[in-house]
Write a structure and sequence with these properties.
The complex is a heterodimer of chains A (299) and B (273).
Chain A (H helix, E strand, L loop, with lengths): L16 H30 L3 H10 L1 H34 L5 H13 L2 H12 L6 H6 L8 H12 L1 H14 L2 H8 L4 H30 L2 H7 L9 H10 L3 H27 L24
Helix pairs in contact in A: 1-13, 2-13, 3-7, 3-8, 3-10, 3-12, 5-7, 5-11, 7-10, 7-11, 8-10, 9-10, 10-13, 12-13
Chain B lengths: L8 H28 L3 H8 L2 H34 L5 H7 L2 H4 L2 H12 L4 H8 L8 H25 L3 H9 L4 H30 L2 H6 L10 H10 L3 H30 L6
Helix pairs in contact in B: 1-13, 3-8, 3-10, 6-8, 8-10, 9-10, 10-13, 12-13
Classes of the chains: A mainly alpha (299), B mainly alpha (273).
Chain lengths: 299, 273
């Protein structure tokens, strides 16, 4: 965000005091209704039956198990996705090969596919009706309706998160530094860890934070592949649904408050990382890396 | 082309292709394969059943409504955040990302609590005779929530980079604010707006978690397509689930192509040099 210059300038379009106040007012009111209120009501509803109910929901074995499973899924899916994101960004930005653009599109696909479609798709790979399902069943390997399925589905929905933060940035940074390091005799890993990584660390962390938030919150895809077995394959978002449909609204909101807290921390981390320059090459999480263009500010 | 001296192509590309192949391509191919194994007649019968058609209608109409609302509100929000400074604008700017960060199931139950007839907003609207929760209006609100950041975050950088000289020139020629907005600013924003709109629309078409709690889920009236897929699965009707899911998949691909095309157009206006 560019700072307003000190010099007094003629008023810009829409700077009339009445219009300005009116527009800010309208935007803040709608924003409060649509964005702030949903966050606030989580706290209000979570404590609507008192602190005891809140505490009981949180320390209930099923909730604790759901929290544990959600954390475990994130602990596996996020590092794997990070490794993938780095590998994808390295290969796409440091080399020229045929099919690069196609690869970029493939990496972007999970962003536009409905999580429900993702869940169904996994069913047709590892389910009994799927390609590998019957074979896996013979060997007694359970992927669907078990933890591996939850992790795989989470990996699908978050596959682009790290790659899309790194690709535009590494594209803009070019290859000169790495080429210099290599020509001076540094190994590939050394080049990556001492030259590339320091330049991409904030963007990498930014991608990891967003990826983590999505893994922990994923609902649609996971609800299909998990089988919703209480105390076994229920992640926190699924547990919320279960409590909600069990007419334990206060409990559902109590469990939600944990995820809402994670969301707030995610936003705080995002803002802090943006101050470090992350997410700036493509200043939002919405423009895909596909159109990455070294658009460095020269003026 | 210069000879590339950098190491690691084989390893990094190998990992990338293996992962993208196993995690992204394989499942989607399996879905397409399953849907294709139905044969054209059965496939057509399933995807054009009255219940499926009704679900497409609800999904598309609500997504359209939500996107149109977000087009105006998102533009206003982006405008306020880039043009005006007021106490707390940084917090508002950060809060725009909440729909991305908040899990959809949580958003779903919160919006439902707010808009049921005894909720904070639902009770007021009920007095006016407007029912939101368990109607298409509720679906639309859930879609508005989840897709709002797309439009704000695509328009915001373009608004920030807008050259004040253009406005000054138009002002010196005697244009009124509204004329300048319409004739000078809006055309420059249009590519970004369109890109944001297509992202927002695509997201709304596929949304599930936030919607199912507030939607009421009545077949033929408030049942979205993603939910129909889910219901077919619960009925163990895997072929029907595959067929309807393939419709969502094809739509997603069309939207992806459209978005990429619009974004490459939008980019022409955001290259900053």
């Amino acid at each position: 965000m560019s700072a307003t210059p000190k010099r007094r300038k003629p008023p810009r379009v829409g700077d009339g005091p009445l219009f300005r106040r009116l527009l800010i007012g309208i935007v803040l009111v709608i924003g409060a209704i649509l964005i702030l209120a949903p966050l606030l009501i989580i706290g209000v509803e979570a404590f609507s039956k008192g602190w005891a109910v809140y505490r009981d929901t949180i320390i209930h074995p099923d909730t604790l198990h759901a929290i544990g499973l959600t954390v475990f899924a994130a602990l596996v899916a996020v590092p794997v996705n990070t490794a993938f994101g780095v590998a994808a960004a390295w290969s796409i930005t440091k080399f020229d090969f045929r099919g690069r653009r196609l690869l970029l599109v493939v990496i972007e696909i999970p962003f536009s596919v409905s999580p429900i479609v993702a869940g169904v798709a996994y069913l047709f790979v590892y389910g009994l009706q799927g390609i590998f399902g019957p074979t896996l069943d013979e060997y007694g390997i359970k992927i669907l309706f078990a933890i591996p399925g939850i992790i795989l589905a989470s990996m699908f929905v978050t596959a682009p998160f790290v790659a899309r933060e790194l690709i535009p940035l590494m594209q803009a940074q070019g290859r000169d530094l790495e080429e210099a390091a290599t020509s001076l005799g540094a190994s590939g890993w050394r080049t990556f860890f001492s030259v590339t990584l320091p330049n991409i660390k904030w963007a990498l962390l930014y991608g990891v934070v967003l990826c983590n938030a999505r893994v922990m919150g994923e609902f649609g895809a996971v609800s299909i592949v998990s089988g919703n077995i209480r105390g076994q394959t229920n992640t926190l978002p699924l547990h919320i649904e279960l409590l909600y449909h069990d007419y334990q609204a206060a409990g559902a909101f109590a469990a939600s408050s944990i995820l809402a807290l994670i969301a707030v921390f995610t936003i705080i981390a995002k803002v802090a990382l943006e101050r470090q320059g992350a997410g700036r090459v493509r200043s939002s999480a919405t423009r895909p890396a596909l159109v990455a263009n070294p658009a460095e500010k020269t003026s | 082309m210069r000879r590339n001296v950098l190491p690691g192509l084989r390893l990094s590309l190998g990992v990338t292709l293996l992962y993208a192949g196993l995690i992204v391509v394989l499942p989607l191919a399996a879905l397409v394969f399953k849907a294709a194994s139905l044969g054209p007649e059965d496939y057509w019968r399933i995807v054009s059943s009255t219940r499926a058609l009704a679900s497409y209608r609800v999904t598309v109409l609500c997504a359209l409504g939500a996107t149109i609302f977000n087009l105006f509100f998102g533009l206003a929000l982006a405008w306020v955040l880039t043009r005006y400074r007021f106490p707390g604008w940084r917090i508002v700017d950060a809060m725009v990302d909440l729909p991305f960060a908040l899990p959809t199931a949580v958003a779903g139950i919160s919006l439902t609590a707010l808009f049921t007839t005894n909720g904070w907003f639902g009770s007021i609207l009920a007095d006016l005779g407007i029912k939101v929760a368990y109607t298409p209006l509720g679906i639309m609100i859930a879609m508005c929530f989840t897709s709002l950041p797309f439009i704000v975050r695509t328009v915001q950088p373009v608004l920030e980079d807008l050259d004040p000289a253009l406005e000054e020139a138009a002002q010196s020629l005697g244009g009124s604010d509204w004329t300048i907005f319409r004739k000078v600013i809006l055309p420059l924003l249009t590519p970004a707006l369109l890109a944001g709109v297509s992202l927002s629309f695509a997201r709304s078409l596929g949304e599930f978690g936030a919607i199912i709690f507030i939607a009421g889920n009545q077949p033929m009236s408030t049942e979205i397509t993603a939910l129909l897929v889910f219901i077919r699965l619960e009925e163990y009707d895997y072929q029907a689930a595959a067929a309807v899911a393939s419709v969502l998949l094809v739509t997603a691909f069309v939207m992806l192509a459209l978005t990429n095309w619009m974004q490459s157009r939008a980019l022409r206006y955001t290259v900053r040099n």
